[in-house]
């Protein structure tokens, strides 16, 4: 599928249904929202709280900003069951510590919203030796999902429910192109996340879009490895073009372009968050309809032509194998999860 400029504009100008039209009673259920202190994450958290979630864990990088968001949630809608748990996706150790805490906690996990992301046009290496954008948006996002997957499967069995993982992607994945050399690279993630590739400014111009493409690859690959009998739904969602702190690193002409586009077309964070919440809650009677799917505009939408092409399918397969290998070295529980809960394709 291709997305034209006209279809993008039409989508941004279309009326977005209110959350009340797909409201679900979340009494007793636990929701984790990553990046919950601001923007889309906070607004999604607010909607979940308004549906009576038994427990909400606001996973944030900053103690002060996260605590302020907890207090804001309480003051705005009177929700007092939110907890602040710290996580920094730029450090694998922080993701591991978050998962360790959840294991010690022993509680249930019904909905995991992986919303945190960054947009940068310059290469910055993390402590783990990866380009920060790729680590935050893809590698650590995938690591967290795989580490919490056993807890979600346990929740499904103990509470006769169908947990969901929602990865926030973007329609920008439709516009990504690979060079032949990159597409055929046997270590594509290592190349894309390494200094040699990233220090070429040209290669960083579509970095955000590229990471959102790999979010789609991850969701599709993970779903393909989850046995159909396992009550766990993983989906990707496009929240639309919204006012966002993602563009805070823009400079020069890009600032003007972003301002003009936001003024003309952007959704508020609250409106964009509705799409995230819909993906986490829709089709309660037939949740399997959302297995491995990409959603946008409150419906299942076909992914980009690159994803569906022979090249894309091969990149998806190889990048999954590489991802599992990389993350298995970060935490052996990833390897154990893949071997115990997932199947070969």
UniProtKB/TrEMBL annotation:
User: What Pfam families does this protein's entry cite?
Assistant: adh_short
Name of the protein:
WW domain-containing oxidoreductase
Q: Which SUPFAM superfamilies match?
A: NAD(P)-binding Rossmann-fold domains
Could you list this entry's UniProt keywords, alphabetically sorted. Answer: Oxidoreductase
GO MF, any single term: oxidoreductase activity
Q: What's the superkingdom here?
A: Eukaryota
Identify the species of origin: Favolaschia claudopus
């Amino acid at each position: 599928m291709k997305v034209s400029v006209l279809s993008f504009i039409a989508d941004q100008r279309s009326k977005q249904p209110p959350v009340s039209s797909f409201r679900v009673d979340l009494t007793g259920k636990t929701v984790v929202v990553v990046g919950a202190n601001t923007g889309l994450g906070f607004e999604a958290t607010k909607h979940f709280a308004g549906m009576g979630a038994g427990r909400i864990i606001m996973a944030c990088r900053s103690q002060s900003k996260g605590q302020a968001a907890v207090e804001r949630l309480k003051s705005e809608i009177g929700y007092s069951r939110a907890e602040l748990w710290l996580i920094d996706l730029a450090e694998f150790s922080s993701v591991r510590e978050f998962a360790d805490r959840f294991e010690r906690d022993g509680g249930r996990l019904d909905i995991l919203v992986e919303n945190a992301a960054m947009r940068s046009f310059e290469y910055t290496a993390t402590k783990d030796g990866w380009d920060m954008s790729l680590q935050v948006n893809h590698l650590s996002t995938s690591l967290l999902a795989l580490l919490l997957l056993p807890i979600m499967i346990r929740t499904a069995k103990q509470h006769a429910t169908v947990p969901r993982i929602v990865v926030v992607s973007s329609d920008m994945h439709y516009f990504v192109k690979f060079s032949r050399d990159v597409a055929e690279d046997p270590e594509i993630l290592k190349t894309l996340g390494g200094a040699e590739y990233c220090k070429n400014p040209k290669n960083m111009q579509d970095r955000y879009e590229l990471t959102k493409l790999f979010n789609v690859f991850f969701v599709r690959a993970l779903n393909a490895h989850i046995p159909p009998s396992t009550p766990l739904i993983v989906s990707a969602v496009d929240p639309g073009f919204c006012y966002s702190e993602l563009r805070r690193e823009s400079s020069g002409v890009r600032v003007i372009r972003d301002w003009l586009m936001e003024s003309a077309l952007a959704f508020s964070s609250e409106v964009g968050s509705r799409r995230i919440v819909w993906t986490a809650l829709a089709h309660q009677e037939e949740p399997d309809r959302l297995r491995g799917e990409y959603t946008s505009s409150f419906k299942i939408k076909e992914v980009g032509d690159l994803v569906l092409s022979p090249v894309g399918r091969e990149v998806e397969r190889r990048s999954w194998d590489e991802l599992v290998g990389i993350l298995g070295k970060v935490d052996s529980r990833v390897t154990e999860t893949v071997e115990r809960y997932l199947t070969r394709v």
